[in-house]
């Protein structure tokens, strides 16, 4: 048996993700009828769709069997992979970052930044982040009652936080935002490099151009931080040595690029989605103002709800069994975090936004050895923003229809128009 073609097409269609209900409905059907089954579509290597929370965990628990880097780490066509290999000299991934590394190389590189992003290590950043949050709350309130929260707040605040942590000057933030959006939203004519509908060939070309532009930028970053090291993350990357050697060109570039892009777009999408959910549910603001301890539950639920990273791919290196299905060496698998975060076996009412859940084992940060490196920073910066904003906000509602990005990878709301009053 395979997954019905229309469902398989929906779950990889960037346009479908611009209407989340469509994708949620497709995955609900997949979970109930084919929770772990193959999708076979023309032009795409057949892939297993892993839709259940438990199966994703089981796969991510076994990184020696399920590799990240042997095939493309995100959904693409056979032609896309072939062209990528031509550009990179054989690597199926354009960018060689942590998410496309395995084994010792992954462990060694992850170890460069990991000690600096634990809850204890980031605690001293709290005051600086609160200062940034206050600035953006003031900025929002300066809009006098109506604002596009996605464009004017959610896309800018996490950008400022991560760039400060990395050591990127403020004047470079618009460049970083533009190139990140080009990289993650290539299918969206409002955000991609050409600002147009692109053919698959032109999509890859524009991804390559964006990557090259980022590489030019980061080459200078390496020189700067090797000459004058600091404790900022880009400096740690520039000066890191594995077995006595600096990271090679692709390792360095991949590291800078993932930190500078994954470090804000994910959090921005979650923040924008959280405001959208809040604006539709007036009782939530009051509940959190009555008991600010509930803000943590709000943050956790907004991460589950928004799931800004829709999937990552794995490939099996040996035969094994997952969820009763025989997986063969060489098989390609799509881990759908969006589906896992709606899994009826884990949540009784997965399609409700609730801050009173007894437990919320959301898996939007992934799991296992690749679990999101920035998860504690992301949680902390969102909590602080809401703490600062809710002190001042009296009411909020949508002032027009929200709009989502056209993308099947890292995406979320791109417009969240709201009307608000302040205390
Ligand atoms: C709500 C915000 C975020 C979400 C939902 C998110 C989600 C994810 C997911 C799903 C993965 C892959 C995990 C896996 O394969 O199991 C990942 C990896 C990663 N994330 Fe995040 N992320 C967020 C914020 C951040 C931030 C703020 C940073 C910046 C420091 C960051 C940096 C990374 C890095 C470097 C990796 C690669 C880790 C590895 O492969 O070892 N992320 N993230």
What would your notes on this structure say?
- This protein has a single domain (5-422), classed as Cytochrome P450 (Cytochrome p450, Orthogonal Bundle).
- The chain is 49% helix and 12% strand.
- It has 17 helices and 14 strands.
- The chain has helices spanning 5-12, 20-33, 53-60, 78-88, 103-113, 119-122, 126-141, 149-154, 157-166, 173-184, 200-227, 233-239, 249-280, 282-290, 295-306, 337-340, 375-390, and strands spanning 36-39, 47-50, 66-67, 146-148, 241-242, 245-246, 311-316, 320-322, 325-327, 332-336, 393-398, 403-404, 413-415, 417-422.
- The strands form 5 sheets. It has a 5-stranded mixed beta sheet. A 3-stranded antiparallel beta sheet has the order 4-14-11. A two-stranded antiparallel sheet has the order 5-6.
- It is globular, with a radius of gyration of 21 Å.
- The relative contact order is 0.18.
- The mean pLDDT is 96.
- Bound molecules: protoporphyrin IX containing FE.
- Residues 60, 98-99, 110, 162, 258-259, 262-263, 266-267, 270, 303, 308-309, 312, 337, 364-368, 370-374, 377-378 line the site of protoporphyrin IX containing FE.
C-alpha termini separation: 58 Å
Q: Based on CA inertia axes, which overall geometry fits?
A: globular
Low-confidence stretches: none
Q: Record the strand order, biggest sheet.
A: 1-2-10-7-3
The CATH superfamily is known as Cytochrome P450
* Number of discrete helical segments: 17
Strand content: 5-15%
Known CATH architecture = Orthogonal Bundle
Bound molecules: protoporphyrin IX containing FE
* Total individual domains: 1
Q: State the share of residues found in helices, binned by percent.
A: 40-55%
Please identify the top-level CATH class.
Mainly Alpha
């Amino acid at each position: 048996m395979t997954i019905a073609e229309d469902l398989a097409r929906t779950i990889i269609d960037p346009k479908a993700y611009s209407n989340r209900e469509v994708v949620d409905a497709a995955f609900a059907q997949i979970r109930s009828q084919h929770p772990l089954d193959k999708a076979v579509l023309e032009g795409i290597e057949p892939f297993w769709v892993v839709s259940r929370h438990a199966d994703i965990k089981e796969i991510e628990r076994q990184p020696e069997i399920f590799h990240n880097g042997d095939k493309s780490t995100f959904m693409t066509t056979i032609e896309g992979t072939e062209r990528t290999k031509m550009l990179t000299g054989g690597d199926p991934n354009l960018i060689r970052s942590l998410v496309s590394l395995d084994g010792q190389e992954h462990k060694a590189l992850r170890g460069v930044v990991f000690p600096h992003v634990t809850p204890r290590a980031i605690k001293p950043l709290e005051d600086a982040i609160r200062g940034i949050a206050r600035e953006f709350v003031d900025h929002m309130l300066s809009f006098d009652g109506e604002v596009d929260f996605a464009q004017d707040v959610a896309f800018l605040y996490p950008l400022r936080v991560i760039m400060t942590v990395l050591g990127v000057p403020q004047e470079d933030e618009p460049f970083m935002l533009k190139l990140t959006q080009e990289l993650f939203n290539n299918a969206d004519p409002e955000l991609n490099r050409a600002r147009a509908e692109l053919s698959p060939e032109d999509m890859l070309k524009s991804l390559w151009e964006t990557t090259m532009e980022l590489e030019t930028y980061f080459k200078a970053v390496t020189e700067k931080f090797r000459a004058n090291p600091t404790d900022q993350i880009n400096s740690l990357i520039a000066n890191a040595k594995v077995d006595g050697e600096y990271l090679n060109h692709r390792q360095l570039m991949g590291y800078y690029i993932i930190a500078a892009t994954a470090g804000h777009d994910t959090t921005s999408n979650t923040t924008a989605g959280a405001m959208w959910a809040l604006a539709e549910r007036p009782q939530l603001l009051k509940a959190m103002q009555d008991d600010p301890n509930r803000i943590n539950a709000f943050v956790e639920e907004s991460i589950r709800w928004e799931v800004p990273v829709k999937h990552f791919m794995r490939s099996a290196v040996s035969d094994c069994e997952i969820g009763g299905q025989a997986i063969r060496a060489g098989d390609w698998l799509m881990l759908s975090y969006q589906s896992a975060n709606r899994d009826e076996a884990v949540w009784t009412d997965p399609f409700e936004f609730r801050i009173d859940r007894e437990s919320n084992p959301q898996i939007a940060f992934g799991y296992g050895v690749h679990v999101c490196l920035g998860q504690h920073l992301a949680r902390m910066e969102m909590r602080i923003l809401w703490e600062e904003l809710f002190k001042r906000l009296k009411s909020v509602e949508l002032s027009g229809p929200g709009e989502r990005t056209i993308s099947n990878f890292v995406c979320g709301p791109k417009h969240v128009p709201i009307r608000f009053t302040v205390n």
